[in-house]
Amino acid sequence: MLEVCLLGTGGMVPLPKRHLTALMVRYNGSNILIDCGEGTQVAIKKKGWSPYPIDTILFTHYHADHISGLPGLLLTLGNCDRREPLMICGPRGLRRVVDALRIISPQLPYEIIYKEYAEPMETWQRNDFHIRAFRVNHRVECYGYRIDIRRQGRFQVERAKELGLPCPLWGRLQHGETVEHEGTMYTPDMVMGEARRGLSLVYCTDTRPTDRIVEEATDTDLFICEGMYGEGEKDQNAKRYKHMTMEEAARMAAKAKPRRMWYTHYSPANMNPKQYEKGLRKIYDKIEVPKDGKSIDLKFDDEA
Amino acid sequence: MLEVCLLGTGGMVPLPKRHLTALMVRYNGSNILIDCGEGTQVAIKKKGWSPYPIDTILFTHYHADHISGLPGLLLTLGNCDRREPLMICGPRGLRRVVDALRIISPQLPYEIIYKEYAEPMETWQRNDFHIRAFRVNHRVECYGYRIDIRRQGRFQVERAKELGLPCPLWGRLQHGETVEHEGTMYTPDMVMGEARRGLSLVYCTDTRPTDRIVEEATDTDLFICEGMYGEGEKDQNAKRYKHMTMEEAARMAAKAKPRRMWYTHYSPANMNPKQYEKGLRKIYDKIEVPKDGKSIDLKFDDEA
Hints:
Two copies of one chain form a homodimer.
Chain A (H helix, E strand, L loop, with lengths): L1 E7 L13 E6 L2 E5 L5 H8 L6 E5 L5 H4 L2 H10 L6 E5 L3 H8 L10 E5 L4 E6 L2 E7 L7 E9 L5 H6 L4 H8 L4 E3 L2 E3 L9 E9 L6 H7 L4 E5 L8 H6 L5 H11 L4 E4 L12 H5 L5 E2 L5 E5 L6
Parallel strand pairs in A: 3-4, 4-5, 5-6, 12-13, 13-14, 14-15
Antiparallel strand pairs in A: 1-2, 1-16, 2-3, 7-8, 8-9, 9-12, 10-11
């Protein structure tokens, strides 16, 4: 089960009832935070989660509304007596920006591992998360994220029996090990069925629509996308500041066909984005216009 | 009338129901903010005030819980299209710290004027505010503040008449000008009565008790002081981290005899500081243990 919480839905400036846009996902004890604006650590506490197990922070870019909460969060993790390393990932300039902000959180009891993207697309694994950062189109270098939890096939009991493999070896093969039995080597693919559908989500904000976003979001469980401007007449602002209207995001969703689509990063002037939901569902019926704290537990297709 | 709002009362870390400690005061169109932790701009909005007219920010010191909200506030002022200069004042290192934090708010449409304290005590005037920064005793260089609004004496109508001064000149003398009438120079002190009691407040946080604080707080209208630890057994922590227990602060108030005394900067572990109020009032009866947003309009003694 992949637990997802959209901690905040605001763009530009934190409001009394709207935290800045950030996402937190949890799977099997590992936690990823995407973006950390002013107040994100408060939003985590409001959700009832702890910041302590966050082992990875992914930044889309370094505009203040996406990173201003970092020094406070780093200190809070330190005050929790965190000792395990924290991985922080983001576009070029990451280390320079984080080092500057750390003027107010210089001493931490844990190591920070930096991953600064050199390519328009980077893919890596962190615990059970398969992460892909892909460049989007904003005023500064900015990345979207796809996160996948893969699911292997079922263990083929009949096949293991045919091969004469004794029961105690099954578990090791299931966990990806190669085993030796009576002088013969057995690899997992010899006893595992075809990989099953896993879980996937795409998160992108602060960008114009791009084909790459559509491609990444295709058939995902959840597509979270900025919808900075609610009204049609804001098209010019969306183009000028390199954001999207809610309608533009909906048209991407209609092409990508994710199982669910959530908006985020509303303009502070867009006080009631929910009013547009009905109209947007005519473009794509799986759309939701959520508020802060919107959560879902994504489950595998055959999971109870 | 001096409007005062204790925007937040928390120390160390922002909580869902407790903003970090910060104070905002307004007088005659001029606004001072003391400290700006993560979320202070949200607390200003919750109060229903605008950050726009803040013309002076005073920092006690540069621990993150007192300054982490600055880059966001600077950007918000820029987004309001502020053009007037902003004065930022604080202990040594001010410019280095603010410049580093501004990596995420580099372009602003207004000028920043820095005032970095070179002495243990500095006094200056900003609009109608007479400000004194005085060094306190924390783990790093830290200052408390006294803010005074002075009040001149009454205009002595009889005296002006005796001097043969015509009515149109009275207002200029009242506003501090020297005027000439029929070849003679007249100065304000010739027609103004003795200065009346003004308004004054002292704000100090992140310090051990000091004689200087007692001296500054003496007979003020409002003394705002940290009360990090509520329980007696926290004495050792208070000494170790150079903070105060609520009792230590109360004993300072009992010496200084301000008209009102408010606590702030509660430890995040001190979830219900109000429980100590009754006991603390036995030490000094003008004590209040406020929550976020605690406000007062301080009025001159003869003001309606």
